[in-house]
Amino acid sequence: MAHKIAVLPGDGIGPEITEQAVRVLSALGLDLEFETAPVGGAAVDALGHPLPPSTLDLAKAADAILFGAVGHWKYDGLARELRPEQAILGLRKALGLFANLRPAILYPELANASSLRPEVVSGLDILIVRELTGDIYFGQPRGVRKAPPGPFEGELQGFDTMHYAESEVRRIAQVGFRAAGKRRHRLCSVDKSNVLETSQFWRDIVIDVAREFPDVELTHMYVDNAAMQLVRAPKEFDVIVTGNLFGDILSDEAAMLTGSIGMLPSASLNASNQGLYEPSHGSAPDIAGKNVANPLATILSAAMLLRYSLDAGALADRVEQAVRAVLRQGLRTDDIFEPGMTRVSTSRMGDAVLEALK
Ligand code: NAD
Question: Distance between CA atoms of 185 and 215, rounded to whole angstroms?
């Protein structure tokens, strides 16, 4: 049976970069059915809402969603619920996408793009698995209140609530262990269990889940130390699993290690491995429509789609190797251009990946 792929190009450079990823997916000999729908600002213009019911229905019925990017300053004046970015939150919620996977890979060919010394980062290949739907970002109660008895009694006080239920920790830990099992078999769980009750509970549950995965080596690290180790010796990590708050910060830190935002894919998965795949960057309105955007983050997101939603790991490897091959050939879009390399357009980069796949 054909796999259904919902293509949601979105705004800015979204259409240009998703087009290249669809070309790559179509060239692999798989039985894929693509259907495209508007999302973000494009959907506000066409149908009056950033995530119209027809787009949401298409996404729900698909095996996987290939997402470009949303957002443009021309929508800045809209009410919050009509802003293009609300489409991503709506999709996460409707599909229960609780696991965010963000690889940070630095191809040796691009080692000069990092702000760290090439020998520290060249060949970097880590995966951050961030819990996406719980933690202090969603915990209730929250707000501003009169402080209870204590040193600040009577003053106004802002507060949030951090909590994780056992099932939430179990399922994200399992995603982390499974991902590590497909890679170098090492999982580092990041928490703050020396201070936070929620983190101690997190750690206890992760240790329990580890018994299901005897082939993966589990370690633990406090988040402050993890932030340091990521810049000191990032290649020591294989897979990191962590909560929403810590993962938000660490995944951006890890992304910056690579120095090239146009290269970073991401995936958000639910319990049935249905996933939304998108580049980590935004819609880059400053370069939209000029055929200069780097399509590789989106093509690498398509590789993640193959690996995690279609269970086609060998094809994912092929796509990733094709991307490496074009970098070795010296082809570069503007954002990763260095003197001595060949500057290419978005569509030419897509052509080159297709040729390398042959
Ligand atoms: P951005 O990531 O769109 O752009 C930052 C800079 O990186 C720009 O100079 C841009 O030209 C460049 N850039 C980004 N992707 C590139 C690529 N593939 N190739 C070459 N250069 C690239 O971030 P921003 O400018 O802060 O945000 C622009 C819009 O995108 C905003 O509306 C924002 O809300 C939205 N946004 C959307 C997502 C998403 O859809 N997931 C994520 C982040 C930002």
Answer: 7
Is pLDDT above 90 for 81? Answer: no
Cα separation, 284 vs 13, in Å, equals 6
Whose alpha carbon is nearest atom 13 of ligand 1?
284
9 lines ligand 1 (CB under 6 A): no
292 CB within 6 A, ligand 1: no
* Ligand 1 atom 31: residue of nearest CA: 71
Return the amino acid letter for 244: N
Centre of ligand 1 from the C-alpha of residue 282, in Å: 3
Question: Is there a common fold for 1-97+270-358 and 99-262?
Answer: yes
Task: Please tell me the pTM assigned to this model.
Answer: 0.91
Please give the CATH number for the structural domain made up of 1-97+270-358: 3.40.718.10
Q: How far is the CA of 286 from the centre of ligand 1 (A)?
A: 9
Looking at domain 99-262, its CATH superfamily turns out to be Isopropylmalate Dehydrogenase (3.40.718.10)
Any ligand 1 atom below 6 A from CB of 287: yes
Give the type of residue at 221.
Answer: M
pLDDT tens by residue, 314-347: 999 999 999 999 999 999 999 999 899 999 999 9
Distance of alpha carbon 173 from alpha carbon 210, whole angstroms: 8
Q: Which of 8, 85, 88, 281 to mutate to test the pocket of ligand 1 (most atoms within 8 A of CB)?
A: 281
* 232-247 pLDDT tens trace: 999 999 999 999 999 9
What CA–CA distances, in Å, run from 320 to 155, 257, 297? 56, 19, 11
Find out whether 236 and 226 touch, Cβ atoms under 8 Å: no
Active site residues: 137, 192, 224, 248, 252
CA angle 317, 339, 289 (to 5 degrees): 65
CB 102 less than 6 A from any atom of ligand 1: no
